[in-house]
């Protein structure tokens, strides 16, 4: 915006300067060609004022001497005539009575300037002056034409790149609107249009990514649903062909398990979708981390009774976090469930405060997450070993939900290597005061 402003301001200044100088030079040239004297550097008015001043301050007795010396140095002829001289045009006869005004030349006498010398009842006549313009109409026509031409050319130079860039931007946006999601505006300029184009490009980029993500999600969901459905169909086929009561029960159990899986997937998907919505309102409050972790462990540990859970929390009352209770518990539950699933023997949960952030770390002594996959596993349906985790019951949405919950809280998560080589998930929740609550 600033750039555009400067560009136009400088453009206007250039137009003004050119409009002043170019016509001047053109007339100068015309005058020269037509053999007229060059334009005087001192404007008429100041010459006239000077002359008046000199005569007014001198005593009347000096007038004739003054007249003689001045007429030698002036560029124009100088005469001294009687006020009653019939050669003075009649309009001027009354003018000389106004002592302050040098008689400006009337139109038909253009080229003469009359200066009244009231002390001696005479009048100085300066002229004839060279006439610089043949007539005023001609002057104005040429002036207007030159200014128009300059403004036109300058305007053209200023507007053409803008118009071209606008057109490019317009094309890109309409193509994008028609569904070409990879349409971008190739505008390189650093002016206002360039910055709008940049904004458009980054907006288009994120919309494209968003739509791609949705498509991928849809694809993954269909894929995820297909597997249990195919297995149900397979089990049903076997069920049909068997008379054996034991085998029938086994097949029904399998079908039940697959339906559970579909149910879990649909549940997680609904959650994921719910957390995804922008308008999700948070009920933030100061939560006691020990209490929430306690609830989570109670809920999960039955599934992995052999894994030991080590808690490193600050004194209970000081381990706080500012978050939505349900969402915070959900995030902790997903992280602890993963840790329990992958740990060999121990899961460690620790809490500390650091520059206004509550840091909750969940680590295990399992296989860990290879550095190149630490970003990927946060995406929906990404699993390091898809075949392996399915048996362990993972849908692949747990961490995607965690990362969305953290995003809603403006909190951050990072995946690191734990001391024993396992995975360490570090979550940082803002908004806690570093002093202990009273
Ligand atoms: N503690 C961990 N140790 C090693 N790998 C992990 C750990 N936590 C997550 N992962 C890897 O990240 C993948 C994604 O985890 P995520 O929680 O999103 O899905 P999931 O656990 O497979 O399924 P869900 O949580 O939806 O039931 C996991 O499949 C696993 O490969
Ligand atoms: Mg998980």
Short description:
This protein is α+β, with helices and mostly antiparallel strands and 438 residues long. 54% of the residues lie in helices and 14% in strands.
Structure characterization notes:
The structure is a single chain. By secondary structure, the protein is α+β, with helices and mostly antiparallel strands. A hairpin with a 5-residue loop joins β9 and β10. The strands form three sheets. A five-stranded mixed β-sheet has the order 5-7-8-10-9, covered by helices on one side. Strands 1-3-2 form a three-stranded antiparallel β-sheet, with helices on one face. Helix content is 54%, strand content 14%. The protein starts with a helix and ends in an 8-residue tail after the last strand. The relative contact order is 0.06. Among the domains are: 44-126, no CATH class; 218-276, Helix Hairpins, CATH 1.10.287; 284-430, Histidine kinase-like ATPase, C-terminal domain (Heat Shock Protein 90, 2-Layer Sandwich), CATH 3.30.565.10. It is built from eleven helices and ten strands. The structure holds adenosine-5'-triphosphate and magnesium ion. The site of magnesium ion has 5 residues, from α9. Residues 334, 337-338, 394, 398 line the site of magnesium ion.
Features:
single chain, 438 residues, alpha+beta, Helix Hairpins, Heat Shock Protein 90, five-stranded mixed sheet, three-stranded antiparallel sheet, 11 helices, elongated, binds adenosine-5'-triphosphate, binds magnesium ion
How are helices and strands ordered from N to C? HHHEHEEHHHEHEEHEEHHEE
CATH classification, class level of one domain: Alpha Beta
Strand order of the largest sheet: 5-7-8-10-9
CATH homologous superfamily placement of one domain: Histidine kinase-like ATPase, C-terminal domain
Q: Can you give the mean pLDDT?
A: 82
- The Rg value, from CA coordinates, equals 46 Å
Helix residue percentage: 40-55%
Number of strands: 10
> How many helices?
11
Shape: elongated
Low-confidence stretches: 96-109
The main sheet comes to: 5 strands, mixed
Q: Assign the CATH architecture of one domain.
A: 2-Layer Sandwich
Which fold name fills CATH's third level, the topology of one domain?
Answer: Heat Shock Protein 90
Span of the ends, CA to CA? 51 Å
Named once each, the bound ligands are: adenosine-5'-triphosphate, magnesium ion
β-strand amount? 5-15%
The helix/strand class is alpha+beta
């Amino acid at each position: 915006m600033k750039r555009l402003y400067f560009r136009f301001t400088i453009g206007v200044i250039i137009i003004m300067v050119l409009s002043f100088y170019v016509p001047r030079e053109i007339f100068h040239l015309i005058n020269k060609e037509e053999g007229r004297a060059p334009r005087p550097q001192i404007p008429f008015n100041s010459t006239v004022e000077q002359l008046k001043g000199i005569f007014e301050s001198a005593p009347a007795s000096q007038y004739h001497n003054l007249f003689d010396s001045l007429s030698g140095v002036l560029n124009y002829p100088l005469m001294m005539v009687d006020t009653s001289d019939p050669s003075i045009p009649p309009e001027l006869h009354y003018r000389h009575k106004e002592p302050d005004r040098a008689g400006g030349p009337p139109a038909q006498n253009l080229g003469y300037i009359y200066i009244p010398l009231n002390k001696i009842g005479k009048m100085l006549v300066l002229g004839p002056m060279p006439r610089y313009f043949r007539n005023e109409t001609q002057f104005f026509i040429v002036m207007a034409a030159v200014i128009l031409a300059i403004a036109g050319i300058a305007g053209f130079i200023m507007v053409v790149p803008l118009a071209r860039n606008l057109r490019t931007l317009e094309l890109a946006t309409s193509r994008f609107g028609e569904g070409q999601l990879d349409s971008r505006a190739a505008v390189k300029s650093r002016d206002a249009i360039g910055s709008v184009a940049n904004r458009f490009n980054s907006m288009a980029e994120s919309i494209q990514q968003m739509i791609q993500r949705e498509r991928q999600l849809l694809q993954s969901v269909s894929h995820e649903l297909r597997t249990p459905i195919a297995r149900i169909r397979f089990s049903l086929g076997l069920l049909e062909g068997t008379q054996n009561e034991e085998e029938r029960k086994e097949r029904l159990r399998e079908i039940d398990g697959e339906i559970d899986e579909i149910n879990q997937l649909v549940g997680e998907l609904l959650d994921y979708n719910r957390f995804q919505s922008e308008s999700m309102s948070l009920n933030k409050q100061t939560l006691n981390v020990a209490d929430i972790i306690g609830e989570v462990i109670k809920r999960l540990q039955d599934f992995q009774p052999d894994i030991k859970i080590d808690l490193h929390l600050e004194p209970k009352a000081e381990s706080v976090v500012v978050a939505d209770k349900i969402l915070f518990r959900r995030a902790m539950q997903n992280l602890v469930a993963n840790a329990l699933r992958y740990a060999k023997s121990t899961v460690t949960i620790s809490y500390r405060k650091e520059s206004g952030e509550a840091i909750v770390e969940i680590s295990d002594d399992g296989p860990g997450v290879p550095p190149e996959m630490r970003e990927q596993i946060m995406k929906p349906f990404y699993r390091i070993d898809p075949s392996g985790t399915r048996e362990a019951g993972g849908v692949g949405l747990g961490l995607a939900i965690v990362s969305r919950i953290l995003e809603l809280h403006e909190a951050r998560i990072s995946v690191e290597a734990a001391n024993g080589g396992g995975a360490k998930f570090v979550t940082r929740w803002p908004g806690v005061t570093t002093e202990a609550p009273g």
